[in-house]
């Protein structure tokens, strides 16, 4: 076995114990004499597996009963469009906070359905900070306020939950869900693509306050209506069964780690070590994000001389540190430190970085 430390932004590394369990039970699952991928989603065994996953997720995040949990498809991008379709009347106001590429994309996909407006944006400064909580206000007639708690590309995260009064708060938690506890009651709708902290791609997790399912919206076909998915227990059509099963294993793994408070402490320690290595490198490495807005999950950084990028990437890969190339929009490097990345991986990375700086400084 030569599994490396994988810093991919997504699809990202999964806990090794989870992959091992999936491998052990891949051919024959729970006495079914078939793989979990090869059985009906409507059979007793899979229904039990699906319900257990929802139960464990509800425990982990302390999801109140007046919220539905949906296991959907389409990725976060599809729901950039589907959320306005479900929550707003045609052309109704919908407000957006812009802190990076993903919130921009959410705004642009909403355009055909709502009067989508940015009410605060850090684009002018190159997306290196979050807006002050007092610097914006939501339109009173807005169907919802949308924001992105963690911007995967820019490495920018909120250190507060936006307050929108009676307007429901919608959050794209794709790259930070389950990385720390959160108060679900503050939100109208939380959604997250699975491929970072939940499981394989192809699954989208949604937590939605049940009163929002009663909005008429503008989705015509049932397949686009969240209320229809909720009514059918996310089995309106065939769900991504393997991804749902694997997400269930990840939820169990998280419980074994001590739950979200415990994982949050490890995540903070990992991020602190990496940011300290960058900040104490005398300018060899740089992260441009305001300290209060630095992401614990995605850490972009540049080398003082971009000519060294190729050597850094080649040597880090040879040292067993994978996928450190930054997103093309910001350049340089990016280390993603999702839940499955152990502290040992970040230690190996920071030791490599310090040694690389010593040799090339
Ligand atoms: N939102 C955020 C915050 C993301 O990080 C990503 C993917 N990296 C997306 C949305 C888009 O997800 P998908 O490709 O699953 O549509």
TrEMBL record:
Enzyme Commission number, as recorded: 2.6.1.52
Superkingdom assignment: Bacteria
Boundaries of every Aminotransferase class V domain copy: 5-349
Pathway: Cofactor biosynthesis; pyridoxine 5'-phosphate biosynthesis; pyridoxine 5'-phosphate from D-erythrose 4-phosphate: step 3/5; Amino-acid biosynthesis; L-serine biosynthesis; L-serine from 3-phospho-D-glycerate: step 2/3
Pfam families, per the entry: Aminotran_5 (PF00266)
Catalysed reactions listed for this entry: O-phospho-L-serine + 2-oxoglutarate = 3-phosphooxypyruvate + L-glutamate; 4-(phosphooxy)-L-threonine + 2-oxoglutarate = (R)-3-hydroxy-2-oxo-4-phosphooxybutanoate + L-glutamate
Major enzyme class: transferase
One annotated GO biological process: L-serine biosynthetic process
Annotated pyridoxal 5'-phosphate binding sites: 76-77, 102, 152, 172, 195, 237-238
Details of cofactor binding: Binds 1 pyridoxal phosphate per subunit.
Annotated binding of L-glutamate, by residue: 42
Any one cellular-component term (Gene Ontology): cytoplasm
Residue positions, PTM N6-(pyridoxal phosphate)lysine: 196
MF terms (GO), sorted A to Z: O-phospho-L-serine:2-oxoglutarate aminotransferase activity; pyridoxal phosphate binding
Entry's localization field: Cytoplasm
Cofactor requirement: pyridoxal 5'-phosphate
Main location (coarse class): cytoplasm
Keywords for this protein: Amino-acid biosynthesis, Aminotransferase, Cytoplasm, Pyridoxal phosphate, Pyridoxine biosynthesis, Serine biosynthesis, Transferase
InterPro entries: Aminotrans_V_dom, Pser_aminoTfrase, PyrdxlP-dep_Trfase, PyrdxlP-dep_Trfase_major, PyrdxlP-dep_Trfase_small
HAMAP family assigned: SerC_aminotrans_5
Family label: Belongs to the class-V pyridoxal-phosphate-dependent aminotransferase family. SerC subfamily.
Oligomer and partners: Homodimer.
Function: Catalyzes the reversible conversion of 3-phosphohydroxypyruvate to phosphoserine and of 3-hydroxy-2-oxo-4-phosphonooxybutanoate to phosphohydroxythreonine.
Protein name, as recorded: Phosphoserine aminotransferase
Organism this protein belongs to: Pseudomarimonas arenosa
Underlying gene: serC
